[in-house]
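Subject: design request, 164 residues
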């Protein structure tokens, strides 16, 4: 059975870097290229591993222990969490892992006391919208406009909500 492992050290850093460097991950995160390994490693150490309110999980294959995806949330106040992103390694996309990871992700959030989670998603990110809808998230009318460097376009991002 696949499972989520919280990133408490840099053991899965190379797999995370590979996922964050994929073309679609770069585009949807608003950058024009993947993260520089040294500065990203420092960011993960200082802002994720050392921060008890920032939780990054690696989706692992239950048999091989191979990293297949990632998801992240940040605790705010009073049971409110922000979903900060997710991704599946390219070779595992299209296998239904987004739904599995989404379910496990929400279970982990509940374990940390989440009562309400929100996240932002571009109206053009159809795979993520599909995963949100299938997991029962609700699209609100609240929007933000982000400039996407890789495509040099402005995208409308909608706020999505999930009560747990």
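Subject: RE: design request

Done. Sequence follows.
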């Amino acid at each position: 059975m696949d499972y989520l492992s919280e990133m408490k050290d840099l053991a899965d850093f190379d797999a995370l870097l590979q996922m964050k460097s994929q073309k679609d991950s770069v585009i949807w995160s608003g950058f024009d290229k993947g993260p520089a390994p040294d500065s990203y490693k420092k960011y993960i150490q200082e802002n994720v591993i050392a921060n008890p309110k920032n939780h990054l999980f690696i989706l692992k294959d239950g048999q091989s222990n191979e990293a297949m995806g990632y998801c992240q949330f940040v605790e705010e106040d009073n049971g409110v969490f922000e979903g900060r992103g997710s991704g599946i390694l390219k070779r595992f996309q299209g296998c239904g892992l987004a739904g599995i990871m989404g379910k496990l992700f929400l279970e982990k959030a509940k374990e940390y006391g989440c009562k309400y989670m929100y996240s932002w998603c571009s109206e053009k990110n159809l795979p993520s919208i599909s995963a949100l809808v299938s997991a029962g998230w609700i699209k609100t009318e609240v929007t933000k406009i982000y400039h996407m460097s890789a495509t040099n376009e402005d995208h409308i991002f909608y706020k999505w909500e999930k009560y747990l």
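The longest strand covers residues 138-148.
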